[in-house]
Amino acid sequence: MSEADIEQMNDMHKGGIGVSRIRDFMASLACGYHNVPYTTRDMHDVNAKQRREGDLDAESCLRYLRECKENDPALYYKEVVDGEGVLQHLFWCDGTSQIDYQVFRDVVEFDTTYKKNVYLSPLVVFSGVNHHNQTIVFAATLVANEKEETYVWLLQYLQTAMKGKALVSIITDGDRQMKSGIEQVFLKAHHRLCTWHLLRNATSNIEKPNFTKMFKDCMLGIYKFGTFQRKWFEMVEKFGVADKRWEVGADFECAKGDPVMTTNLKQLEHFPAENYTREIFYLFVPILDRACAMRVVDFEDNGSYFIHTVSRYGTLGKDSRVVATSEMCEI
Questions:
Q1: Which is it for strands 169-172 and 107-113: parallel, antiparallel or unpaired?
Q2: How far is CA 82 from the centre of its chain?
């Protein structure tokens, strides 16, 4: 078998194509299996060549991280190799990511991009959102598998890299191994499922578009607890799903210049305009617009806290009670 044939077989094997299918393909090119001198030794040559290339890639990656650490002393990485010296897991995060984590770790997404690289290794990414409403990456890990002990390992190194600072809230796709790993390492973290997976599960398991619509309304709507309960049980009863379960599986550029005030609450609008980044301010303005449609219909001061009863103009029977304490600064 020629070197070119072995190279082609190697590329196919890297792409995840099985041995038998590779042989079928080579036989089709050679007009029959009898024309393919495809032996165990040939496959050994392919595997050996792939192993050598993998070793070189792993060493190049580690060398690159060592070079990066010379320019960024805070960069943190950790590798794990098996008994034969083959790289299994690789965790890394740079200094900027660590600073971002200290400030923006309120909500962290824990996501796996499954086997999208040539070595078919899952890439685990920890990400969040900054004050410009931009996605930021806190850390990343290449792993050889998605076992519980693997997730425990990478979460422990995330905690080490972030100077012991625990996660506050973490969002995943509901993978049970992830869930177990989180419970072992970040005991107090609030574990939630992302809305995309919740909606996908609702759509695929119930298969009723109107249910998905009502489910989305319950999930994303802003309701008082009693109103949410009523809507939820109405949905459950209407679609008969009470017993159905499924696996819920550039600061300067942004800060310069004064935004135009657009609401009637000018004084209240000026404060976020001066303190928020532009992206967050423009997300806040529609909320302030909705506040302009509210009016205070009653007020009570009992000495330790204030109670404001508010209603929306033109909407009867939907009053809300806002309780505020001046000493504790709580609402």
A1: parallel
A2: 29
Residues 6+ apart with CB under 8 A from 228: 218, 221
* Collapsed DSSP state (helix, strand, coil) of residue 140: strand
Residue 68 covered by a domain: no
Separation CA 26–CA 32 (nearest Å): 9
pLDDT digits over 239-268, tens only? 888 776 656 434 434 444 556 666 777 777
Helix (H) or strand (E) holding 200: helix 195-206
Distance between CA atoms of residues 92 and 78, nearest Å: 7
| Residue 148 is assigned to a structural domain of this protein | yes
Distance, CA of 147 to CA of 150 (rounded, Å) = 5
Please state the domain count of the chain. Answer: 4
CA angle (121 as vertex; 120, 123 as ends), nearest 5 = 130
* Distance between CA atoms of residues 255 and 265, nearest Å: 21
Return the CATH number at 170. Answer: 3.30.420
Identify the sign of the CA torsion 158, 123, 138, 198. negative
Tens-place pLDDT, residues 28-80 = 666 665 555 544 445 455 455 545 555 667 788 888 899 999 999 999 999 98
d(CA 74, CA 277): 27
